[in-house]
Design goal:
Layout (H helix, E strand, L loop, with lengths): L3 E4 L9 H16 L16 H11 L4 H8 L5 H20 L4 H7 L6 H11 L10 H6 L8 H14 L11 H15 L4 H5 L21 H13 L3 E5 L4 H10 L11 E2 L1 H10 L12 H8 L5 H5 L11 E5 L2 H10 L2 E5 L8 H7 L4 E3 L5 H5 L1
Parallel strand pairs: 1-2, 1-4, 2-3, 4-5, 5-6
Helix pairs in contact: 1-2, 1-4, 1-9, 4-8, 4-9
Length: about 375
């Protein structure tokens, strides 16, 4: 019997589809909008359903890129956007280095923000360059980097492609912040973005996806599961890669929020705050176990105390983590908690083989099966 159960959200309670759509649109904008690289190609801040499908198919090479990143322990959509865009930026700079190697060398020795992106755009405007997303998996497969090491591996790819030693690619870079904020514009839309990042959208006209969430199973059935777990004496919490507003709003609208202890709801916003306060410990996003450890000890414990906890926890076997990804599995194992994998993420039922090889404690068709696990 478990006294605490911590749930991931995406791929467990809510579909990841809207997040993946927003991620693809973010890469699309960074590559093709005149506010950024402005490569030749169409762009609109208000794509219809069919165009979103086309963009996602292209940006993530029919989801091959998403599946690869997931398999390497990347769980954050912000990291997914950063990896995909940065890889294309490196390929673009490699091509332009044939024209002006000195400019490229200079760019790769400085932090890249919006101003630097616009400088690159001005230089390459006559190059006629078109991104090649088919090269992503092949380039990253040359190494065995896992988790956030993949972000650092971009420096290796830059060296291989351009012959320049650089260390500018990392989770703490200005470019990562550009990717993160642009993703937030797409997901939250014009009306809510200022509350999230402290400024208006750089590109106006985005309606947002927050009101279009898709529950994995009918909300009333999720409520029945959570009610039963509470009756059995389980405390419930959340460890998610979503920011706070993107966690609280949909769970509230689905009437699920009140089942969780507020001090055990840990989001990407909490992770970012911890990283800013303790940069020496960054990155702290999954598969790092921080969000789950914070949920275990509650948000009443200061971050520095959470970071001092010795892992695996002595009583970790009394805790169950429910997630859909390898990143969740890694976090659970680091804590010493048991792990229940749901087959409702990106890979669906195909993920069973992966979790069987990893020896997950439980493999569930969906979150409703958790009742049979702990009864």
């Amino acid at each position: 019997m478990y006294n605490l159960i911590l749930f991931d959200i995406d791929g467990v309670l809510l579909s990841e589809e809207r997040y993946f759509d927003a991620s693809a649109l973010t890469v699309w904008e960074l590559l093709f909008h005149e506010h950024y690289l402005g490569l030749p190609g169409p762009f609109t801040p208000s794509p219809d359903h069919d165009l979103i499908r086309q963009v996602r198919s292209r940006m993530f090479h029919d989801d091959e890129i998403l599946s690869f990143m997931k398999s390497r322990g990347i769980n954050s959509n912000w990291d997914m956007v950063y990896l995909t865009f940065s890889h294309q930026l490196i390929l673009l700079l490699a091509e332009y280095s044939k024209v002006d190697k000195r400019f490229v060398e200079n760019i790769l020795t400085r932090q890249i923000g919006v101003d630097e992106i616009l400088m690159i755009a001005q230089k390459v405007k006559d190059l006629g360059y078109q991104p090649d997303f088919s090269r992503f998996v092949a380039d990253f497969s040359k190494g065995d980097a896992q988790k956030q090491e993949l972000l650092l591996y971009l420096n290796t790819i830059a060296h291989e492609k351009i012959g320049v030693d650089t260390s500018i690619f990392s989770r703490n870079s200005r470019l990562w912040n550009v990717c993160q904020e642009t993703f937030q514009e797409w997901y939250l839309g014009d009306q809510l973005i200022a509350k999230s990042i402290g400024r208006e959208a750089r590109t106006k006209g985005k309606r947002g996806f927050l009101k279009e969430e898709i529950p994995i199973v009918p909300p009333e059935e999720m409520r029945e599961v959570f009610s039963r777990l509470k009756e059995m004496g389980c405390s419930l919490g959340i460890g998610t890669g979503r920011p706070t507003i993107e966690t609280m709003v949909p769970l509230g609208e689905l009437e699920l929020l009140d089942f969780f202890e507020r001090e055990r709801i840990v989001t990407a916003s909490d992770v970012l705050d911890a990283e800013k306060a303790h940069p020496e410990h960054a990155p702290l996003a999954k598969p790092q176990p921080f969000c789950y450890v914070k949920g275990i000890f509650t948000k009443n414990m200061p971050d520095d105390e959470v970071l001092k906890q010795s892992l695996p926890l002595r009583d970790g076997s009394n805790i169950l983590i429910v997630g859909d990804s390898v990143a969740d599995y890694m976090a659970a194992r680091a804590i010493g908690a048991h792990f229940a994998a749901t087959l409702t993420g990106l890979s669906g039922k195909k993920a069973r083989e992966t979790f069987e090889k990893l020896h997950a404690d439980y493999i569930l068709e969906d979150m409703r099966d958790i009742i049979s696990v702990i009864s």
